[in-house]
Amino acid sequence: MARLYANENFPMPAVEELRRLGHDVLTMVEAGQTGQAMSDEAVLSFARQEGRTFLTMNRRYFIRLHRHCPDHAGIIVCSFDPNFEELARRVHQVIEAEPALQGRLLRVNRPGPG
Questions:
Q1: Fewer CB within 10 A of the end CB, N or C, for the chain?
Q2: Domains of the chain: which residue ranges?
Q3: Third-level CATH fold of 3-108
Q4: Which pTM value belongs to this model?
Q5: What does the alpha-carbon distance between residue 90 and residue 69 come to, in Å, rounded to a whole number?
Q6: 25-28 long-range CB contacts below 8 Å, 24 or more apart?
């Protein structure tokens, strides 16, 4: 199971489901890092120092940051899905399919209409 650091914009019900699935998830709120106007670089640096893969809905900025700063413990960018349980399951599946998250950028997208 993965050690994750969830951005403040990542839905708490999805965090709770990831925990239920066995992942160690720390949120920015729990780390006392909300309301501090931290830069994205500082947030990612904290996750790296803690050995945690960063989990966010802020796709554009963290995809760009991955390109400029590839030395991180992993970044998982997600598209919004109001079904938080399914979002967490997709994140879980992506994590389970990867042998290592270090330095990787993984994308979890909401499935289109089928």
A1: C
A2: 3-108
A3: Rossmann fold (3.40.50)
A4: 0.93
A5: 25
A6: 25/55, 26/50, 26/52
